[in-house]
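Sequence in, structure out.
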Amino acid sequence: CALQPTECFLSQPEVKQESAVKAKRRKKKKISDILEKSAPQPGVPADLQNLLSQHFGENRSVIEIEELKLSDSCFLPANDLTHSFSSYLKEICPKWAKLRKNHKEKKSVVMLVICSSALRSLELIKSMTAFKGDCKVLKLFAKHIKIKEQMNMLEKGVFHIGVGTPGRVKALVEQDGLCLNSTKYMILDWNWRDQKLRRMMDIPEIKKETIDLLEMSIIRLCREGSVKLGLF
């Protein structure tokens, strides 16, 4: 008889633990279910415009915010999620062969592609084969590549497309290794999701570096009409 309360006492926490684990499992499943079931919406210019006004809205004057605004005319058609990377680039840049031929400037690229990681950069470089023809593509990320190496390559050769992360591209522009005056297109890898289902603008560091890069010179060039933005 004396044993009975002990047994009861022992079995209670076990039941509690089990139900807590089950609840946790249920919760976990629910979150990924929601993410899987929510159909991805293709990015549109308004998404980037809203992101910029939210980011700058807190600590800029009305005049400063006005100068950082991008109108719809600054944008290329956005990817409606039906395109491969090559077919998207062909659609937004039908005169690529001519642009490529005319590009002679060193320290610059005609097209800049910005994405969230070195690995994703390599994927995009592979998937633009059908579009790029025999043009030269430069990897512009930090993983395994020193910034001095990239600066030397840009100084010595003519490159048509740069693909990389916003942090490294920003550093190259700041150190005068990359000049954006010949850049006509800047493509943001907007819709792609990583294993955690995050897009590039869902990752705080990538989002901040992308906005810094845009603010540094891209927004001005877009407003002047020399650069067009594309959301892939």
